[in-house]
Amino acid sequence: MTAGDDKSYDDINVTPMVDLYLVLLLIFIIMTSAGVTGTKVDLPKSSSKPPDLGAPKSKAITVNNQGAVFLDTVPVTLAELEQRLNAHKAKNPKFPVIIRGDSQTQYQGVMDVLDVCGRLGLDQVGLATVGPK
After folding, report:
1. C or N terminus of the chain, fewer CB within 10 Å?
2. What does the alpha-carbon distance between residue 18 and residue 11 come to, in Å, rounded to a whole number?
3. CA distances from 97 to 19, 33, 49, 72, 92 (A)
4. Which of 72, 127, 76, 80 is nearest to 105 (CA)?
5. Which whole number is the average pLDDT over 116-132?
6. CA geometry: angle at 90 spanning 121 and 64, to 5°?
7. pLDDT tens, residue by residue, 99-111
8. SS3 category, 103
9. Hey, CA dihedral for 43, 44, 45, 47, is it positive or negative?
10. Domain ranges of the chain
11. What pLDDT, in 10s, does the model give residues 54-100?
12. Domain 59-127: top CATH class
C-alpha cells in the first residue's frame, strides 16, 4: 500500500442518483398528462338565452312572533296562503313546503298553517329549526 491509499471512502456521492430520479419523475409526469387529453369531439352549440327554470321548487312559509304569515317573504292571510299554494300546486303537484316559526310564536299560528297544508294535500312539509349552539 502506498501513502495515497490510506484515504477512506466514507462519502457517497448521491448527485447522479438524484439526477436519475428527477429524470424519471419528469418522464412519468409527461406520460401521464399526455394520456388525459381525451378524445376530440365537436361540442353542440347552446342558445344564448338561459333556460327558463320556472318557479322555485319549494315554498317557505314564515310565522313571526306577532302571528303574521309570510309566503316567500310576502305577507299573506291564511285564505290568501291557501289560494297561492293551491295555484302553485296546480303547476307543480309535488313541491316541498318549509314552515319557519319564530321561537316566540304562538303554537296556534303554526298549527293554522299546517291545517292549510293538510287541506291542500301537501305531503312534503318540513319544520325549520336550528341546531344546538
Report:
1. C
2. 15
3. 65, 48, 30, 10, 12
4. 127
5. 83
6. 60
7. 888 877 788 888 8
8. coil
9. negative
10. 59-127
11. 555 788 888 888 888 888 888 899 899 899 988 888 888 888 888 88
12. alpha beta
